[in-house]
Amino acid sequence: MRVQRLAEKALADGMERAHGYHDESGNALRANAGTVVVLDADTGGVVAMASNPGFDPSWYVHGLTEAQSKYLFNNDNAPSVNRATQLKYTPGSTFKSITALAAVKEGFASLSGSYPCEGTYTHPNDESGTYFSNWTDANLGYMSIAKALEVSCDTVFDAFGSDFYFRWAQNPLGANGDLLERDLHEWGFESPTGVDLTSEERGLVPDPGWAATRPDLFDNGTWIPGGDILTMIGSGYVQVTPLQLAQAYAAIANGGHLCRPHIVDQIMKPDGSLDKKVEDHCDRTVPYSAQQLDYIRGALRNAVQYGTAQCAFAGFPTSQVSVAGKTGTAEREEGKQDTSWFASMVGPDPDRPEYVVVTMVEQGGFGGQTAAPITREVIDALYPKLGDASSPSCVAADR
């Protein structure tokens, strides 16, 4: 209960703080809604789940007033919806931790390889004039996958997306899928997590079959390279729930076990004795080696200490509690500001994180600017003996 309260407060405070920041056009960030999910990495147990804006459940005891009903159901910010499970979002660069592993699994990349991080990327032999931009137009040279995660280089992953597309073009996996879609399904994306709550959103992993149903988005419904390229960086049409992303990061943290999240831990009898202990369900595994998962955890520790989350965790005692995390900044449709993400794994033992913390703020700007500082406050709540480490101001933080 203590962590739940502090997660709700950290989310509300972080959203309010974001209102003082501005987007790249100079407009104040709206930061109108968000969520924080905290999971036990080993069991999938939900430690905290905050959704903002929210409401007082006691309103339902005597029936909703007209004002309460209007607030809940005629409100653009949808306070009646649990944003952790009932809405899907483009995950931005938090997805790169997953797609990097997929690229290694399929032989398009290796843990010892080096790849160009240029300012723009063009799909080979594409004469349409289409190019994909990195977050910087500078050529950052060749780098490892770990470095690409640390600095969040888009163009390294864009090239892997082309590889997935060429593999599909040469050998389609039936009408609906390609390798990237199949690999992402292995992490539970586009499927409900099975959490013991109602109305869970499935999300979306775009594929050739889906493209065929959307001629409004794809010319004649034909799958194109950009489908895989944008999915690799958590952009385009891919959508996940914050709980799905937390479930996947927990699998990275715990050595590859995909645990079903659960709110209920035990059921008690009226006299206070135990009636039933809820069993953990971690029987599904992702097909990656301990070495590969350890590599990603190490890369994400570097992202916190030296990369895109460095500002938010300045001064944090990582020698006592290790933090591995990935920022994400997801572009939205015209008129909407970027979604701010931070997905993390934390614990005293860097090789066996205890918790996963995922924070998402709608129209919250850069991931390192809004979501990462909120996550830091939640981690302070998980480990109160660290002392009060207030979140720094990261106005110009990286993506």
Explain this structure to me?
Helix 3 packs across helix 5, helix 4 (145-151) runs parallel beside helix 10 (290-305) and helix 5 (154-170) packs across helix 8 (225-232). A five-stranded antiparallel β-sheet has the order 2-1-13-12-11, sandwiched between helices. A two-stranded antiparallel sheet has the order 3-6. It has a two-stranded antiparallel sheet with strand order 4-5. The protein has helices at residues 2-18, 66-73, 96-105, 145-151, 154-170, 179-185, 208-212, 225-232, 242-254, 290-305, 367-382; strands at 33-40, 46-52, 115-117, 120-121, 132-133, 141-143, 257-258, 266-268, 274-277, 284-285, 322-330, 339-347, 355-362. The protein has 399 residues and is α+β, with helices and mostly antiparallel strands. The radius of gyration is 21 Å and the shape is globular. The protein has two domains: 2-55 and 243-267 and 278-386, 3-Layer(aba) Sandwich (Beta-lactamase), CATH 3.40.710.10; 92-232, DD-peptidase/beta-lactamase superfamily (Beta-lactamase). It contains eleven helices and 13 strands. The protein is 31% helix and 16% strand.
Number of strands: 13
Mean pLDDT: 95
Which second-level CATH architecture of the largest domain applies?
3-Layer(aba) Sandwich
Dominant shape: globular
What's the story with the biggest beta sheet?
Answer: 5 strands, antiparallel
CATH superfamily caption of the largest domain: DD-peptidase/beta-lactamase superfamily
- Measured distance between first and last alpha carbons: 32 Å
Topology:
Blueprint: H1 2-18, E1 33-40, E2 46-52, H2 66-73, H3 96-105, E3 115-117, E4 120-121, E5 132-133, E6 141-143, H4 145-151, H5 154-170, H6 179-185, H7 208-212, H8 225-232, H9 242-254, E7 257-258, E8 266-268, E9 274-277, E10 284-285, H10 290-305, E11 322-330, E12 339-347, E13 355-362, H11 367-382
Antiparallel strand pairs: 1-2, 1-13, 3-6, 4-5, 7-10, 8-9, 11-12, 12-13
Helix pairs in contact: 1-11, 3-5, 4-10, 5-8
